[in-house]
Amino acid sequence: MLRLIYVIGISLPFVIYYLIKVMYYIRNEEKYTEEQRYNLAVRLVGRMNRNGRIHTISYGQEKLPKENGYIMYPNHQGKYDALGIISAHERPCSVVIDDKASHALITSQFIDLLKGIRMDKTDMRKQVEAIREVAKEVKDGRNFVIFPEGGYDNNQNCLQEFLAGAFKCAQLSRSPIVPVAIYDSYKVFSINSIKKVRTQVSFLEPIFYEEYKGMNTRAIAQMVKQRIEDEMKKLAEYEKEYRHSFVNI
User: Fold this and answer.
1) d(Cα 109, Cα 113) in Å, to the nearest integer?
2) What's the pLDDT tens digit per position in 171-208?
3) Is the pTM above the cut of 0.90?
4) Quick one: 94 exposed, middle or buried, by C-beta within 10 A (0-12, 13-18, 19+)?
5) How confident is the model at residue 244 (pLDDT cuts 50, 70, 90)?
6) What is the distance in angstroms between the CA of the first residue and the CA of the last residue of the chain?
7) Distances in Å between the alpha carbon of 160 and those of 31, 48, 148, 151, 229?
8) Please, are residues 207 and 177 in contact by the beta-carbon 8 Å criterion?
9) Residue 168 CB contacts under 8 Å (≥ 6 apart), including other chains
10) Hey, which end of the chain has fewer CB within 10 Å, N or C?
11) How many angstroms separate the Cα of 213 from the Cα of each of 73, 140, 240?
12) Cα separation of 232 and 226, whole Å?
């Protein structure tokens, strides 16, 4: 949280400027393409990363499906996760977010800018409606990020249970599933420090519908979790090698 306060404090003129600009984009959405809105979001994240001393390393962009209309399923560590993915993902994408967490200042405007989908976890009917809406938009060629873990409190670099229901969107849309491994993302806002922080994002090989069409959502969830878990071990080794080389400079 200290880093967030620090970033807002030293970037206040830019925060106000971009907030006004974002609200203008939202009110006049017919004037701007999805690419233009996404580019604005990327600039916002870039500014925050520079001022917040955040460095995100990414891998695997070449593995992403060539055509739009896929869903990325990352592990979940904290409030920076979606921003880290956006900083590494060139093509427009949006997010599915818990409605309760989506109405804070800046977060709300950011979600509206990306035309994200809010999911009310307290209302089963609204959850079903949100799942169908995501599936429809993915069929229409939009890309989404969905976090299949129930939450991120104290997750750090350990994976929690992946909720099977999160994969219903992929089943309904028959879209490619892209597992995404996130490493050390929790350090950005969960540690009270403004020291330089390094995170990693790795896009894994997509799982196309032909591979999972005969599986139920529980089996899909386990498969995606295992692939991310395997990648997390590699990312841990990358981080270990980086720290070792840094110490020996």
Assistant:
1) 6
2) 999 999 999 999 999 999 988 889 999 999 999 999 99
3) yes
4) buried
5) confident
6) 31
7) 41, 28, 9, 8, 10
8) yes
9) 131, 135, 217
10) C
11) 17, 20, 38
12) 10
Residue with tokens 């060629």: 141
Amino acid letter, residue 175: S
3-state per-residue secondary structure call for the chain: CHHHHHHHHHCHHHHHHHHHHHHHHHHCHHHCCHHHHHHHHHHHHHHHHHHHCEEEEEECHHHCCCCCCCEEEECCCCCCHHHHHHHHCCCCCEEEEEHHHCCCCCHHHHHHHCCCEEECCCCHHHHHHHHHHHHHHHHCCCCEECCCECCCCCCCCCCCCECHHHHHHHHHHCCCEEEEEEECCCHHHHCCCCCCEEEEEEECCCECHHHHCCCCHHHHHHHHHHHHHHHHHHHHHHHHHHHHHHHCC
Distance CA 80, CA 88 (A): 13
Q: Residue 203 in contact with residue 64, Cβ under 8 Å?
A: yes
Tokens of 182: 């996130």
Q: Which pLDDT band holds residue 33 (cuts at 50, 70, 90)? A: very high
Q: What are the Cα distances from residue 2, in Å, to 6, 34, 86?
A: 6, 32, 22
